[in-house]
Input
Amino acid sequence: MNRREKLELFGVRRAGSGVKFPNARCSALMVRRLRSTPDVGLRTPHARPQGAGFSLIEILVVMGIIAFLTAAIVVILPRVANAAKIAATRATIKKVDELLNDRINGFRRWIQTQDQLASASIPSYVDPGLVQQLGGVVSGLPAAKLVAVKQLFKAKFPQSYAELSPSPSPSAGHKISTESAACLYIILTQLAVFDTEPPSAADLKGLEVADTDGDGLLEIVDAWGQPLRFYRWPTRLVRPNSESASATGFVETSPSPLTLLMSGAAGRAPLLAWGSGKTYSLGATVLPVTPAQTSPFSFVYKCVAATSPSQSGSTTPTWPTVVGATVLDQNITWQAVQDPLSVDPDDPQGIIPAGVVSETQTSGSFVFETPNTWNTTLIVSCGPDGTLGLFESPDLSNFGNLAQPQPDPSDPTGFLRSAMYDNLTNHQQ
Output
């Protein structure tokens, strides 16, 4: 309805029509109101013309919102995807660890059965020549049995192609970084099962197995498609500096390579060295400063008694090297405790004679591991950055077979801890 129609509705015509207003005052007021009311369908100063585009400000606002959302997606999506891969890798490592431990427990039960069958004679898994080498049946059999267990464990749980029998001949594209993962797959799918369940096709998913280097041998891989690493006796992770006459070889700078990769299983965390004039509480454990420890079993010292003020003396006490022995340190009594990291799980009583177990082949020795050192099997994923921080298992020259950390002179520990922070293992909590 236009203005003219509105006026005619109330009986008002334009000037010259000959029609008078029925009520001049009322009609005049009505006309003014009608004239001030915009016509329906007519454009006002604030209405957008039909077909008109967006203003520059509106376009800039929309572009800003799109840019913000795009940036958020670019940042968040990789994190979400990475978190999913970490969870998947942890699940794979947990599964493989359970399968491996099941096989190891079966191996140990088999050993116990052979010992029971042999009674006081030589078990079937022990070479009689080894018994004679270590002193005969009477004195040498206990040590020979422990050494034979290590020999058989190495054969049944290989970590490099050289330890497999027969040893495979991989193609030219082979990489040593894949060997332990391939050996781990062979252990779980092809080698002796002892008294455990035989392998099943459902044990490992398709995405958990691949031939990453194309050498014809399958490997167990993580969610990033990188091969897992397997270390049978990672003693160099425990003693990266080995064992010398001047030091125990343990890394006490926290976090050590050991605590980074085996926080859920390590015998102990790094300890602080004893200090003069310091306050210690009951149960506190310290490392001796002097003299240097030369015993095959190293010791730590536990505060078992203290009187107020419970402070250490000004001079270093004479540390005992007999388990259970004590020494008074002004107001504190320290007791010698065998360091958990210096106990071989296969020989906790120290029955094997010194020199029989060694890192390298010497006269009368067997190449196994760092002697008198705590260890347990280790499965490692390099994590998101793809860097391991350890020498590879087949690398005997750098003690990679014992999980030796790679060096980093700029690190306080002297080792490449920066590569280990995102590693995923079967012993992390």
In short: The first strand starts at residue 209 and ends at 210. The chain has a mean pLDDT of 85. The CA atoms of residues 252 and 270 lie 4 Å apart. Residues 93-231 form one domain.
